[in-house]
């Protein structure tokens, strides 16, 4: 069994909502920076929570702690016996990535100036 160097999930908390999350780069080539809720589900429950924007991850417990894997176990016929976690969906208020009105977009005025009071 080969593992990428430094793999294994890191227990941390979301910088925005402070919920406990697991962070890990999952995958050997195109690694995904995963932030998952530190809540364990059965494979079936995690699959039910799964959406195109929210993946679930198969958790293997190694001597170094939890290790997240792609949940390709759903494709197998036998149900996965491992615990699963799902991507963290942050509930903290979204901070705008860039300040609004920083860039002036040309916008046509709906009413010409001077006709507003009639
Ligand atoms: Zn969060």
Textual characterization of the structure:
The protein is mainly β. The chain has a domain at 12-86. 6% of the residues lie in helices and 29% in strands. It has one helix and six strands; from the N terminus they run E-E-E-H-E-E-E. The chain has one helix spanning 43-49; strands at residues 10-13, 20-26, 32-37, 56-62, 65-70, 83-86. The strands form two sheets. It has a three-stranded antiparallel beta sheet with strand order 1-2-3, with no helix packed on it. Strands 5-4-6 form a three-stranded antiparallel beta sheet. A hairpin with a 5-residue loop joins strand 2 and strand 3. The radius of gyration is 22 Å and the shape is elongated. The model is unreliable at 1-5 (pLDDT under 50). The structure holds zinc ion.
Helices and strands, with pairings:
Blueprint (H helix, E strand, L loop, with lengths): L9 E4 L6 E7 L5 E6 L5 H7 L6 E7 L2 E6 L12 E4 L32
Antiparallel strand pairs: 1-2, 2-3, 4-5, 4-6
This protein binds zinc ion (ZN).
The site of zinc ion (ZN) has 7 residues, from loops.
Quickly give the structural class: mainly beta
Query: Order of strands in the sheet with the most strands?
Result: 1-2-3
- Small molecules held by this entry: zinc ion
User: What helical percentage do the residues reach?
Assistant: under 10%
Average of per-residue pLDDT values = 82
Number of DSSP-assigned strands: 6
Shape: elongated
List the uncertain runs: 1-5
> How is the main sheet built?
3 strands, antiparallel
| Percentage of β-strand residues | 25-35%
Secondary-structure element pattern, one letter each: EEEHEEE
